[in-house]
Amino acid sequence: MKTPLHIFKLLFLLTFITQFSVNTSKAAQVNEDSCWSSMLLMPDQFDPLLIHFTFAGTVPANSFQFLGIWDFGDGFVSTDSCPDHLYSQPGPYVVCLTFSICIGGGLSCHDETCVSMTIGNIAGIENSDGLLHSFYTYPNPVKSVFHIRTDTDKGQRVQVKDLTGRVVFNSIMHNDAPIDASAYSNGIYFIEVGEGDQTLKRKMIISR
Fold first, then answer.
1. Which runs of consecutive H residues, i.e. helices, occur in the chain?
2. Which residues of 89-103 are buried (b: 16+ CB within 10 A; e: fewer)?
3. Average pLDDT over residues 74-96
4. What is the number of other CB atoms lying within 10 angstroms of the CB of residue 156?
5. Less CB within 10 Å around the terminal CB: N or C of the chain?
């Protein structure tokens, strides 16, 4: 049989645990407000489908162990704090970032945010003169069909050359028109897009 002293100690311990649980819950709730999820994104200067993401949120001072999940909106995710992601197709995407951060003492805070954005849209950007300044191909690597997008809406002269310099495709193409590469062998090819005396070049890989 327990003595009254043992019973008093047990009641005191239960009261302390209960009070600690309540205080912990309140503290965690307060600290939730000190977490803000935000992101910065920057297209790569050479490939508009390659996006550099950076966590730009707010976390409590002296917090640690960042645990974040990026959902790029195309079926791929990353747990890096500052990931790079290459999209296979231009278009609208919704990117979401969910993160947790440890504060200490068993506390943590959480937040998430989603951003709608359009990937790979370079038409009309930095070409107020309406001339060709930049282009890219997608997808890259290519399995069967690829597309070309330039920063002008005009049709452009497009040539595809293999490593020997042999021209395997030559035509006037507009943005996003499909080009059939199913008959090309696996390997490295060079895309040349030009108008007048200007020609821009990029490398393309065919891999099946």
1. 4-32
2. ebeebebbbbbebbb
3. 92
4. 21
5. N
* Rounded-to-integer distance, Cα 148 and Cα 166, Å: 20
Helix and strand numbers, DSSP H then E, in the chain: 1, 14
**What count of residues does the chain have?**
208
Structure tokens that stand for 74 in this block = 């195309």
3-state secondary structure of 169: strand
Which of 132, 207, 204 has its CA nearest to residue 168?
A: 204
- Looking up tokens 């790979």 gives 120
pLDDT at 2 over 50: no
Residue type present at position 179 = I
Q: Encoding tokens for residue 113?
A: 């945010």
What's residue 15's pLDDT?
30
Pairwise CA distance, residues 200 & 128, whole Å: 18
CA-wise closest residue to 148 among 161, 134, 138, 156: 138
Sequence letter at residue 205? I
Exposure string for 32-47, b = 16+ CB within 10 A, e = fewer: eeebebebeeebeeeb
DSSP 185: P
pTM to 2 decimals? 0.64
Q: How many other C-beta atoms lie within 10 A of the C-beta of residue 126?
A: 9
